[in-house]
Amino acid sequence: MLCRNRALPPANGFAYLSLLIFLALMGFVCAMAVQVGGLVHRRAAEQALLDVGLEFARALSSYSDQTPPGMDDQPLSLQELLLDARHTEKIRHLRQIYPDPMTGSTEWGLELDPDTRTIIGVFSLSTQRPIKLGNFTPGLSSFNEKKLISEWVFSADTWANKELGVDPRQNNKSNIFNPSTTGLRSNDKPALPNPPVKDGLINPRELMGE
User: Fold this and answer.
1) E strands present in the chain
2) If exposure means fewest CB atoms within 10 Å of the residue's CB, which of 3, 41, 114, 117 is most exposed?
3) Under 8 Å CB-to-CB from 9, ≥6 apart: which residues?
4) Is the pTM of this model over 0.85?
């Protein structure tokens, strides 16, 4: 019997090509959805970091304002913000050591006074670059154009500027150093080199719960 090669019917060929195009488009749409979802989550986490950071800034300001005469107005550890041992009555400046929204960890970078080794400010140990680069609320303009999230340092001055609704003085630089580059930590933990930090994200709504 003589066999002849038959060409694929035009209709079937068009349907096959349409299916390939459809699958390619679906893959593109899914990839974009994942990217946009990740971007939205990152923005939410950065906003949560600003909220939590301001809680630490408020606590540092409260600790300083309620300093008895002759005592240090800055804590040696974050634990002192939970229970101020300088007073006979129970005074709490911070409800809890909140987790870092960017890393999911309760370990924070601490900016220390070079003379007293007391805590001046708190910052995230995230190694990520921020999405938010400007349009910060008054008092946080020093965060503009920072290249790393870890450069967002929250201090008592941060809270004072936020409360007054003014921007910090650009030329008023404190004589401080960044322990994240030296391995120096507060009394909360031994002074060890910084472990590698894996950036993850947690739900910002879980941060401020009881």
Assistant:
1) 109-112, 119-123, 154-155
2) 3
3) none
4) no
